[in-house]
Amino acid sequence: MSSNESSATTSDAVASSFEGLKVLVIDDSKTIRRTAETLLKREGCDVVTAEDGFDALAKVADHEPDIVFVDIMMPRLNGYETCSLIKNNRAFRSIPVIMLSSKDGLFDRARGRIVGSEEYLTKPFTKDELLEAIERHVER
After folding, report:
1. SS3 at position 24
2. Rounded to whole angstroms, how far apart are CA atoms 136 and 38?
3. 137 has pLDDT over 70
4. Which of 2, 9, 52, 53 has the smallest number of CB atoms closer than 10 Å to its CB?
5. DSSP assignment of 87-132
6. What is the mean pLDDT of residues 81-98?
7. How far is the first Cα of the chain from the last one, in angstroms, to the nearest whole number?
8. Closest by alpha carbon to 40, among 101, 100, 112?
9. pTM of the full predicted structure?
């Protein structure tokens, strides 16, 4: 087997491991939503997006995602409040929630942990950071 065949096989295995995985991306930035959606769909994920926490809560109930990526600073219902509502709901508390923010302070990260998030990614994030977060927190 050539190195190209080996590389393609490995890439296919990674992509297929995310096949059908339901991901909810919550961000008020259309650019961030589209970027994350494009990256994750290429890996085989089923991606649903929401532009704020209120929009997201209905989508959590409707789609029951395997993992949620949520921005912190959003209008109406911020990421901390959204995460807290998800984690305080018995039906959804096991869904991993990953906070996304351009703020990288110790207080911000601690506040994310207090409301129940599993991890905190700093924007701009990479495709690998998104996929590694999924690998760490979603059992397949």
Report:
1. strand
2. 21
3. yes
4. 2
5. HTSTTTTTS-EEEEES---HHHHHHHHHTT-SEEEESSP-HHHHHH
6. 97
7. 29
8. 100
9. 0.87
